[in-house]
Amino acid sequence: MTDKELEILATKARLLILEGVHCAKSGHPGGSLSCADAMTVLYFDEMNVDPTDPRNPDRDRFVLSKGHCAPALYAALALRGFFPPEEMRTLRSINSHLSGHPDMEFVKGVDMSTGSLGQGISTAVGMAIAAKLTGKSYRTYSILGDGEIAEGQVWEAAMAAAKWKLDNLCALVDVNGLQIDGKTEDVMPLEPIDKKFEAFGWHVVKVDGHNYSEIKNALSEARATKDRPTVILLKTVKGKGVSYMENVAGWHGKAPNDEQYEIAKAEVEAHLAELEG
Ligand SMILES: Cc1ncc(C[n+]2csc(CCOP(=O)(O)OP(=O)(O)O)c2C)c(N)n1
Hints:
By secondary structure, the protein is α/β, with parallel strands linked by helices. It has one domain: Thiamin diphosphate (ThDP)-binding fold, Pyr/PP domains (Rossmann fold, 3-Layer(aba) Sandwich), CATH 3.40.50.970. The protein has helices spanning 3-24, 29-34, 36-46, 70-80, 119-134, 152-163, 184-187, 193-199, 212-224, 258-276, and strands at 61-64, 140-145, 169-175, 203-208, 230-235. The chain has a 5-stranded parallel sheet with strand order 1-2-3-5-4, with helices on both faces. Helix 9 (212-224) links the parallel strand 4 (203-208) and strand 5. The two termini are 19 Å apart. The model has no long low-confidence stretch (mean pLDDT 98). Residues 28, 30-31, 34, 66, 68-69, 115-118, 145-148, 151, 174, 176, 178-180, 238, 252 line the site of thiamine diphosphate.
């Protein structure tokens, strides 16, 4: 898929994220908007998934380890045809399958229920080990937050992935520099993230997380890397695409009010019109 086609889809995903969170009057727009580009590349250019056969045992697996960014995953799944995009309007409502964090029992296309930070990458490691043990060629992908990697469990998973030489596993860390209530470097200093993963035996690729070609190239580099897992460090902007949300920690877990939503929607729609025009 071309970069422009991917940008159009990611922009549509951003509209769905905003619509869902606004309708729910709660949720996590900041980190959903920062990973929307990588999520789009994964679901439209990289992974072998089929909305008509979501449980195919040979499908590639995806685990949203930072489960609070469910709106980004739901938007990608909806645009890919797993369920109607209109259902984003039911986000977080009591009778909806689209709960605040992804639930594999209810949402078509969700491979793992997540939300407790650190657990998702651990199950992704398990899925990758399972592929090796059963001789299957599917690949496993997982998106983590940079705040999330302060969880000790992430590094237990990282050690295990290197021990089992999981070259069928690709983690992507959304390095937007902010977590729940401030800068990651203030809450828990993480740098140098690349050197940490290298020391844990991973192949590391650093990219601009809003540049489609760079993400595509990093994913193919991961596929070509043998005997060790790959992590792609995505340098991103939290709240990407909405001027007043960009780089503001306050938009981590808060919905825009009606007036704010109209501004956000108009900005993203203008960008979409530019791309399509
Ligand atoms: C084990 C655990 N501890 C705490 C939380 C509460 N929590 C939800 S999101 C978040 C911050 C995550 O920051 P980051 O991973 O950087 O996410 P992003 O900025 O990409 O949204 C925290 C601490 C949680 N979900 N799980």
